[in-house]
Q: What sequence folds into this?
C-alpha cells in the first residue's frame, strides 16, 4: 500500500461515490472525465483494493469503497474547513463561515439575521447548510450549528437560546371553511398534515402529541418546509413553530393546551473557533437574532456579547454557567 496518497485521489473517489459515474464526478468537481478515471485507478493501485465495478447503471462501489466513504467524507470536511480558515486569515472580519440549521429555521428565521450580519460585515461570506441531520462539528462539516437538541459532544462551545414551542396551526381560510376543532376527537373530521417516515425524533416527540401518527395524516411529507407551505395554503392542520405562526397573524393555533411540543434550542461551535473573528461575530449574531425571534422583538442595534459561552471537557456532569444575558450555557460529553 502506498504511504503518500494525495487528497485529489480521494476527492475524485468521493465524487464517483456521490455521483455514480466518472462523468458525473467530473462535472461535479470541475475536471475532465479521464482525470477522474486516472485518480480512481491510482487510488486502487495504491490501496491494493478494487473500489468500483462497472454495470449498465454506472459504477457500483465495492464493500471496500463503502467502508472508506466515511473517512473520505471526513477528509473532504476537513479540507473545506481548512479553506474557510485560510480565507479568513488577516485583520478584521472576513472569510467564509458555514452555518448549519434545520430547513425551517434556515429558511424562515435565519435570513434576516444573516442579512443584518452581512450589512455589518460585508467582507464575510456565509454558507448555509440546511438539513435536519445533526452535522458533526468535530469533523468540521460546519463551523456553527443551530440545533434543536442539547449538544452532547465534548470540545464544543455552546449557548442555550431557550425553547421553541411547536403547536397545531391552520390558516384562517381553512378554519372558515371547515370549522375549528374544539377537542382532540374533532381532528378526525379534519385534514391533518404530517410526516411520512417515522424518525427517532418523531418517535420521541410523539409522546407529547397523542393521536398525531402517520395513519392520521391526510397529507404526508418529510419536508418540514412543505408541511408549513401546505398549512399556509389552507390544505389542512399541521405543526408550526408558535413564534413563526405569529408573524403577520398568518396562522391560527388550535388545541393549544392539548398539543404543545417544546424544543431546546442551542447554538454550538468547536472550541478551536471561539477566537476566530468570523465565527465569533456570526455566533453572536445568531444568538441575538434567535433571542429576538423567540421574544418576537424588533431587530436590535448591536448583537449580544460573546462572553457567556463556556467549554467543558470533563467526563462527569456537564459544566454550567450563566452568561450576562441570562442564557445558561451547558456543554456536555456524549
A:
Amino acid at each position: 500500500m502506498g504511504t503518500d496518497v494525495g487528497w485529489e485521489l480521494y476527492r475524485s473517489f468521493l465524487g464517483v461515490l456521490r455521483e455514480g459515474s466518472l462523468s458525473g464526478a467530473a462535472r461535479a468537481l470541475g475536471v475532465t472525465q479521464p482525470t477522474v478515471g486516472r485518480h480512481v485507478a491510482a487510488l486502487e493501485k495504491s490501496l491494493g483494493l478494487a473500489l468500483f465495478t462497472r454495470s449498465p447503471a454506472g459504477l457500483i462501489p465495492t464493500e471496500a469503497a463503502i467502508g472508506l466513504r466515511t473517512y473520505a467524507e471526513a477528509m473532504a470536511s476537513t479540507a473545506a474547513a481548512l479553506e474557510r480558515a485560510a480565507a479568513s486569515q488577516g485583520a478584521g472580519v472576513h472569510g467564509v463561515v458555514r452555518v448549519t440549521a434545520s430547513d425551517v429555521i434556515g429558511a424562515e428565521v435565519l435570513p434576516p439575521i444573516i442579512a443584518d450580519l452581512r450589512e455589518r460585515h460585508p467582507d464575510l461570506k456565509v454558507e448555509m447548510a440546511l438539513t435536519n441531520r445533526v452535522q458533526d462539528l468535530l469533523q468540521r462539516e460546519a463551523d456553527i450549528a443551530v440545533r434543536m437538541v442539547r449538544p452532547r459532544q465534548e470540545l464544543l462551545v455552546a449557548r442555550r437560546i431557550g425553547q421553541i414551542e411547536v403547536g397545531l396551526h391552520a390558516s384562517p381560510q381553512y378554519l372558515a371553511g371547515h370549522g375549528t376543532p374544539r377537542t382532540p376527537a374533532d381532528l378526525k373530521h379534519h385534514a391533518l398534515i404530517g410526516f411520512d417516515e417515522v424518525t427517532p425524533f418523531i418517535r420521541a416527540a410523539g409522546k407529547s402529541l397523542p393521536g398525531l401518527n402517520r395513519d392520521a395524516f391526510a397529507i404526508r411529507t418529510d419536508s418540514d418546509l412543505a408541511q408549513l407551505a401546505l398549512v399556509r395554503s389552507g390544505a389542512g392542520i399541521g405543526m408550526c413553530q408558535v413564534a413563526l405562526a405569529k408573524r403577520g397573524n398568518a396562522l391560527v393555533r388550535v388545541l393549544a393546551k392539548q398539543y404543545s411540543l417544546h424544543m431546546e434550542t442551542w447554538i454550538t461551535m468547536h472550541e478551536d473557533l471561539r477566537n476566530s473573528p468570523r465565527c465569533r461575530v456570526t455566533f453572536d449574531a445568531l444568538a441575538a437574532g434567535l433571542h429576538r425571534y423567540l421574544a418576537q422583538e424588533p431587530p436590535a442595534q448591536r448583537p449580544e456579547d460573546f462572553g457567556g459561552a463556556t467549554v467543558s471537557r470533563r467526563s462527569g456532569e456537564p459544566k454550567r454557567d450563566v452568561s450576562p444575558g441570562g442564557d445558561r450555557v451547558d456543554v456536555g460529553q456524549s
Remarks:
- Residues 298-334 have pLDDT under 50 and may be disordered.
- The radius of gyration is 23 Å.
- The longest strand covers residues 156-170.
